[in-house]
């Protein structure tokens, strides 16, 4: 059993949470949810020992099979606990996917043949064998997530910690994640999953832990029945427990695009025109199309690795390729003059030493900056270093900067990954405000709840067989 008893975590004088109690038996999955920045990641870090490397004050106790976890080093804990982080790139050590799966096993001095047997078996069982022997830097965010999950499963530890594992996954990959979690449960593993998107966990979880106002309430048994779950969702403002499918979005305009098929889509009199975009990598064509967008909100969806992020990177000038972007008939040469972008990994876009300095990059208007930070729930954190914020808080900061920039084209790559329902609704408000301002907004997302709530035009990047 994993037992967390009266656990409190404080950063300097700021309490993240206090008096948390949680127990999990072998074969149980506990979903941990709550508002963005409520302390879900801090709780997982307290279990795996990483939080001990930071300037924090810990009180309480964590026990694994009756022994105190805090008496063990991180290396000793790694023998029984595996973690999949919110940003999988932070846990990679190798550039090749197969090497990454082998890395931890090699450090345990596992025999070479046993390592290969484990990699082949786990990747086949998890449906990730098509990602073997690939350059990690060429994978999509979702594909990186799947490699991180596979690497953790290869370790065959007793406890598995997942921090927002669905954040970058398409709907097919989320079903794959469900299968993986079910297999881990059947193998008697203890699983803690910090998540906002809860629908895929509804039939898997043995407990639902809600973090709210520096405390945690744990629901089990009959509390997890359909009727009671609905009440919990309403009371705490959680994401929906029901899966949203394509049928739920059928009232929106939906355009299917083959990104490698030399297609031309909505290019007549387009406000923003992407003309003859073409990108290749190592002789393989990744992108080949022409595509136009009017003013308003446009959602770009599709499977992991189909080319969505590649498309917006070429549009924003971050990668080289053939073709040209035009805004209102004018060729886009200095991309920063026309467009603002929030990347999938926002850490690449943080440059200063405080939240206030960061938002001051795009505006000198003190009143506007304070109002935006207040709306985003970041005003009290304006003196903090941006890298000390949670993943969701960093995204909100970058989105606020995008809104303040007033640039006519806005590109957002997975803006709601790591965000609770309240913050997702705030994103919807910003998107609608930018639409009213006459901007062209492109949103890459797998979040159907965002699309259903906001509304807009959908562009689905699909493989050739679906077109």
Explained architecture:
Helices cover 31% and strands 27% of the residues. It contains 14 helices and 21 strands. The chain has helices at 40-48, 74-77, 97-107, 112-126, 141-154, 171-186, 226-236, 308-315, 335-338, 355-359, 366-375, 391-405, 421-436, 448-454; strands at 2-11, 14-24, 29-34, 57-64, 67-68, 81-84, 159-163, 190-194, 207-212, 215-220, 254-257, 263-265, 272-281, 284-293, 296-302, 322-327, 330-331, 339-342, 409-413, 440-444, 457-461. The chain has 2 domains: 2-236, Rossmann fold, CATH 3.40.50; 246-466, P-loop containing nucleotide triphosphate hydrolases (Rossmann fold, 3-Layer(aba) Sandwich). It is of the alpha/beta class and 467 residues long. Belongs to the ABC transporter superfamily. Residues 2-238, 265-466 form the ABC transporter domain. It comes from Suipraeoptans intestinalis. One of its GO terms (cellular component) is ATP-binding cassette (ABC) transporter complex. It is found in: Cell membrane.
Which word captures the global form?
Answer: globular
In the CATH hierarchy, what is the superfamily of the largest domain?
P-loop containing nucleotide triphosphate hydrolases
Could you name the CATH topology of the largest domain? Rossmann fold
Low-confidence stretches are none
Roughly what is the average pLDDT, rounded to an integer? 91
Strand content: 25-35%
**In total, how many domains does the architecture comprise?**
2
Organism: Suipraeoptans intestinalis
Membrane topology: Peripheral membrane protein
Subcellular location: Cell membrane
Function: Probably part of an ABC transporter complex. Responsible for energy coupling to the transport system.
């Amino acid at each position: 059993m994993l037992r967390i008893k009266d656990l409190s975590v404080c950063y300097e004088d700021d309490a993240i949470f206090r008096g948390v109690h949680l127990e999990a038996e072998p074969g149980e999955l506990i979903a941990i949810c709550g508002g963005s920045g409520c302390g879900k990641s801090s709780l997982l870090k307290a279990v795996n020992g990483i939080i001990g490397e930071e300037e924090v004050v810990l009180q309480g106790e964590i026990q694994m099979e009756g022994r105190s976890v805090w008496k063990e080093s991180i290396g000793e804990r790694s023998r029984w606990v595996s973690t999949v982080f919110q940003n999988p790139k932070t846990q990679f050590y190798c550039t090749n996917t197969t090497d990454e799966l082998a890395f931890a096993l090699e450090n345990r001095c596992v025999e070479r043949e046993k390592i290969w047997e484990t990699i082949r078996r786990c990747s086949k069982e998890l449906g990730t064998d098509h990602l073997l022997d690939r350059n990690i830097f060429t994978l999509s965010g979702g594909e990186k997530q799947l490699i991180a999950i596979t690497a953790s499963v290869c370790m065959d530890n007793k406890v598995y910690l997942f921090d927002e594992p669905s954040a970058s996954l398409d709907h097919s990959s989320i079903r794959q994640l469900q299968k993986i979690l079910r297999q881990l449960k059947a193998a008697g593993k203890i699983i803690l999953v910090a998540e906002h998107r809860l629908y895929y966990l509804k039939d898997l979880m043995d407990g639902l832990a809600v973090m709210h106002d520096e405390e945690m309430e744990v629901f089990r048994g009959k509390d997890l029945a359909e009727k009671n779950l609905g009440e919990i969702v309403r009371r705490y403002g959680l994401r929906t427990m029901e899966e949203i499918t394509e049928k739920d979005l059928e009232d929106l305009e939906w355009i299917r695009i083959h990104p490698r098929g030399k297609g031309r889509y909505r290019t007549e009199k387009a406000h923003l025109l992407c003309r003859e975009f073409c990108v290749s990598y190592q002789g393989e064509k990744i992108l080949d199309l022409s595509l136009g967008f009017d003013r308003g909100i446009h959602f770009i969806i599709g499977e992991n690795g189909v080319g969505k992020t590649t498309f917006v990177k070429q549009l924003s000038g971050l990668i080289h390729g053939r073709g040209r972007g035009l805004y209102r008939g004018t060729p886009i040469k200095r991309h920063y003059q026309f467009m603002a972008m929030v990347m999938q990994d926002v850490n690449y876009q943080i440059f200063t030493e405080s939240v206030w300095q960061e938002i001051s990059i795009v505006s000198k208007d003190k009143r506007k900056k304070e109002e935006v930070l207040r709306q985003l729930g970041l005003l009290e954190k304006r003196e903090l270093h941006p890298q000390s914020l949670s993943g969701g808080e960093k995204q909100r900061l970058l989105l606020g900067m995008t809104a303040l920039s007033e640039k006519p084209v806005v590109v957002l790559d997975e803006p709601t990954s790591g965000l609770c329902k309240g913050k997702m609704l705030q994103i919807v408000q910003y998107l609608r405000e930018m639409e009213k301002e006459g901007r062209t907004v492109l949103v890459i997302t797998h979040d159907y709840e965002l699309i259903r709530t906001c509304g807009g035009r959908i562009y689905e990047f699909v493989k050739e067989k679906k077109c």
